[in-house]
Amino acid sequence: MDNLWSEDDAARLVAHYAAEGVDPDLALRTYSSRLLGGVPRLVMHGGGNTSVKITVTDLFGEPVRVLCVKGSGRDLGSIEPDGHPAVRLEPLARYRRLDTLSDEDMVNAQRQNLLDTQAPNPSVETLLHAYLPHRFIDHTHSVTATAIAALPNLESVCREIYGDRVACVPYIMPGFALAKLAADIYEANPAIEGLILAKHGIFTFGDTARRSYDLMIEMVTMAEEHIARHARPTPAFAPIGLPERIMPAATALPILRGLLGRASAGRAPTRWVLSPRSSARIRRFVDGAGLADYARRGVATPEQVIRIKAQPCLLPAPDADRADQWRVAAQDAIAAFVAEYDAYFARQNARTGGGKRQLDPLPRLLAVPGLGIVGVGSSAAAAEIAADIGEAWIDAVLDAEAIGRFESIGEDDHFDMEYWSLEQAKLGKGMEKPLARHVVAITGGAGAIGAATARAFAAMGADVAILDLDHDQAGSVATSIGPRALAIGCDVTDAASVGRAFDAVCARFGGVDIVVSNAGAAHGGAMADLPDRVLRAGFELNFFAHQSVAQNAVRVLRTQGFGGALLFNVSKQAVNPGDAFGAYGTPKAALLALVRQYALEHGRDGIRANAVNADRIRSGLLSDSMIAERAAARNLSEDAYLQGNLLGQEVRAEDVAQAFVGAALLERSTGNVTTVDGGNVAAMMR
Ligand SMILES: [Zn+2]
Which of 77, 242, 295, 576 has a Cα at 20 to 30 A from 38? Predict the structure, then answer.
């Protein structure tokens, strides 16, 4: 593992924060925390924590010793100095005299001793940092360290790797008892430079930020080298036989999404976003004969159980030639997972005296031979986290099994972690946005209305796919929305291209819920003189392309089996034709009929079909030069032209976007038309 420390960068950051009055040691703490947080094999998704002990001056001019320790929920990779809130050390030290301290009392004690009452909650591992005497302490759940920490003969392996430089701490879940035990073990071995916590991770410490960081990199590297030196081929990874033809992810995932949505029978939300993940290493694991055995053993670190539960749900390989049998087998596997989870909860809740609130019983990680792993979450971001954690678990198992046996904590410890009171207290907090868990695909997504629509759906919590002929422009819109918005090049007049685009959406998010068929363009010309090819081109883009999009959308929505919404950008031209605009208006009139036809034929599937009729929107279709021309033809200023409606207000792309969002939210409305034109009697629906 590379040591990324740079004295120049460190000095620059110290100087930068000195201008803000930040203590140089806290600035260095910030620097090396970011180095650790930038390497996923060391730290991912809020895992790990770091600290520094410094002296600050209070309002009376008195010196106060404080522990600056990572705030709960902060990410080491992007941490700022205020991400290490300062806690008074002396009172924390006094708590060590107690025999026990409940988690709630511990959190309360930590908060009471914050210098800044507005600061985030100090990490749940604060006391461990407080009870070790070192100035700098680094803690990670490094994949390699957790592989070593999973071995039953941890003590002897550590001695072999580190000699007497490291001591081992038996597994206890994070909190007061672990902090006391780790401090006792350190005090019995005061020359050690680090601790390996069984089934958990690694601590290193030193008097300088650099020393503690260097030790972390050195010790993880020593573990890596040990594994490389002693790795043996593991028979359990002998491949199982796979079907001749494996279903592509784009076909398999909407089936799984549908099965997950129905598996909990109303005890969990219906919609989940999926994140598939594959690599040679993942495939070796999920296609291996030992998969069921490893899955039963459990996770590699306590935090993993919170993200992916104690084990993944194992599915059969999706045989493309026996799709129906696979669907039934997958349904049975998910049902068995749910039943086992319910039994686990009942058993463990009874053991711990009852009173726990059951979490939903659905898996967060699926293992699919032939495909890889699939993260399950309430959003693409959450599903990706589950897949990342799943991959880290697989890496730890593979590393541990290469030199010994991977062992996890037992069921009781899994439950204590999964149903930790501090985690239970977070339940029910934070409302989801109205369109969370929904995947939205928007054609013409790079244009003014399409981009505004994509942004509006993303703001409502949806994950969005932006389909556009202009792939680069779609990419810019996606980037402006966020790292998980998906850009896809798609020619809506080419049915194969539309099919591929929907496959890409499904392969990325697991399926789709709302489709905004928005792409369009206008062809002008008086009907009697119109060349046939112009009218046909108008129908290709403004009618048949919508049909192609709708067909693909219905294909996915019916596979999932929990309904969805088809939204079409029609036009006022559908009901209020414009002079010399027949090549646009006639296919749009046909499109309005198409919307109603889909509403009629798929209401029984829970699929709603609705239209938005917009007019006079500044966009690719109504360009600045057209606005100037039309305003001049009517002897109006451009503003007067654009405001020529009952409300006297220009209608913007964002207003059309709101109409699409509104139509998506109206759950009992189908075959409906929402007019967005500021009011125009001639274009009113009748
Ligand atoms: Zn930890």
Answer: 295
Nearest residue to 505 (alpha-carbon basis) of 316, 287, 251, 327? 251
Q: What is the arithmetic mean of pLDDT over 629-650? A: 93
Q: Give me the pLDDT at residue 73, please.
A: 84
Distance 187 CA to ligand 1 centre (A): 20
Q: What are the sequence ranges of the domains in the chain?
A: 7-230, 249-424, 439-615+652-676, 622-650
Distance 47 CA to ligand 1 centre (A): 7
Residue 389 CA, ligand 1 centroid: distance in Å: 14
Q: What superfamily does domain 7-230 belong to in CATH?
A: Class II aldolase/adducin N-terminal domain (3.40.225.10)
393 CA → ligand 1 middle, Å: 15
Beta bridge partners of 103: none
Average of pLDDT values for 420-432?
76
- Alpha-carbon distance of 531 to 37, in angstroms, equals 63
* From the candidate CATH numbers 3.30.540.10, 3.40.710.10, 3.30.420.10, 3.40.50.720, the one assigned to the domain spanning 439-615+652-676: 3.40.50.720
Distance 570 CA to ligand 1 centre (A): 55
The DSSP result for 92-156, as a single string, is HHHHTTSS---HHHHHHHHHHTBSSTTSPPBPTTHHHHHHS--SEEEEE--HHHHHHHT-TTHHH
Q: Which residue has the tokens 């659905």?
A: 362
Between CA 469 and CA 11 the distance in angstroms is 48
Q: Is the pLDDT of residue 254 over 70?
A: yes
Domain 249-424: assigned CATH number: 3.40.225
56 C-alpha vs ligand 1 centroid, how far in Å? 27
Provide the residues around ligand 1 (an ion) whose CB is within 5 A.
Answer: 201
How far does the centroid of ligand 1 lie from the alpha carbon of residue 526, in Å? 72
